[in-house]
Amino acid sequence: MRGIRMGATKGGGGGGGERVEKLKSSRTKLWMIRATTSVLLWTCIVQLTALGDTWGPHLLKGWPSCFSHQDSSVSVVEDKVPSVPARVLPPKRVYKNNGYLMVSCNGGLNQMRAAICDMVTIARYLNVTLIVPELDKTSFWSDPSEFQDIFDVDHFIMSLRDEVRILKELPPRLKRRVEMGMVYSMPPISWSDISYYHNQILPLIKKYKVVHLNKTDTRLANNGQPLDIQKLRCRVNFSALRFTSQIEELGKRVVKLLRQNGPFIVLHLRYEMDMLAFSGCTQGCNSEEVEELTRMRYAYPWWKEKIINSDLKRKDGFCPLTPEETALILRALDIDNSYQIYIAAGEIYGGQKRMATLAAAYPKLVRKETLLEPSDLGFFQNHSSQMAALDYLVSLESDIFIPTYDGNMAKVVEGHRRFLGFKQTILLERRLLVDLIDQYNSGTLSWYEFSDAVKESHESRKGQPTQRLVIPDRPKEEDYFYANPEECLQPSYSRLDLSVGGL
Fold first, then answer.
1. Is 70 exceeded by the pLDDT of residue 74?
2. Residues 124-133: pLDDT tens digits?
3. Is 69 exposed, middle or buried (0-12, 13-18, 19+ CB in 10 A)?
4. Average per-residue pLDDT for the chain
5. pLDDT confidence of residue 491
6. Topology of domain 100-240, CATH
7. Exposure string (b/e) for 125-138, b if CB count within 10 Å is 16 or more?
8. Where are the beta strands (DSSP E) in 44-153?
9. Where do you find CATH 3.40.50 in the chain?
10. Could you tell me the CA-to-CA distances from 254 to 170, 263, 377, 391 in Å, in that order?
11. Mean pLDDT of 155-168
12. What is the pTM of this model?
């Protein structure tokens, strides 16, 4: 029995030795396979790198690398392949970074657009790193859009790399500090020149490393700034701030659809509920509508003006024209009723009933919702800034742009159209117009007297080259930089005649 057990033990030991040997052999083979694979991979990488150095320049130029210039059978193909220019990036600006600037924009699309231009310029002249601006999500429109949902963020960063360093977010250590609430936050003083930021804001950035400016509209003065500062504001506005490809392509589609049917005019009709409630303008509204607008005004505590005399405000020219008043003015200006009128606005207060007079005078009223399928706009629904971006693009391309109120979109589009060659923009003098309208409606003026007065008073209000108005110590009353960025415009003083509607 012992012998059998011992034999069995010895036999078992012999089998274990064979398994160990097989295991060692398998491990050796596995190691050799891994080693061989590694050598092959490294060889491939080296070869690809070498080939990349040879092929890369050719691929950037659009030339297939396998084609030989000596091969006559391929030379014809080479001639037909179009050259694709390589993207030329500006060189990075090298400077000592004084810290980081975070900004939170406030307001609608164009209010934020101008603010972004100012903040880039301020960051550049303080030698700080700018974090991609945060857009307003708490205003009346409650638009959840991020910067990259509206603007091409990579283009924004790369196109300005020779002026300022822009990051999508703070470095991790500083980001954690901000998330813990350890950040210095403040609103800068309105209409300040660049010396204010050097003297007041820069020391704070150096002290805290990160400063958050929580209100950014109209924080840089219109006038009295160095020429380089003014030109950088324009570069950001007209070059770096490009809408996303989705918005750009849809905007081109709308313009193409309009162009197929001849000339078109963009009417920025600001007769919207929020504007009427904010301004307190109730011309043409019934008592129920007046009460509804008043309730809305009181619902927003940051709308400071509560008790408003609508009639007085209208006579002073501080109310948007009503659709009925707008129809009269377009007719008085001899705008041909066969032209398309594109309504660049949100929902008109009072709906189709309120638009009836304008639609009767100009039957070719269109808007993006009537030109496009619902599926085309589905992505943009509940994103007011993205919808406004579409209207912005169409407004730039129109034969004539007519805003009925001088809000931020009206001003920024006016300035952009000036930059594009002083494209015709009719800037309505509302204070004069409502007086003329009242005289015409009361029978004091005949139609011809009314029309002549309207045309004569607007001969010099068509977006021609003009000097920006400067009012020392009253920046709110002087001309807005983004409406007339004359430092960036071509010095052409020839009158543009688009031959539309006799204007």
1. no
2. 999 999 999 9
3. exposed
4. 85
5. 72
6. Rossmann fold (3.40.50)
7. bbbbbbbbbbbbee
8. 100-103, 129-131
9. 100-240
10. 38, 13, 11, 9
11. 98
12. 0.81
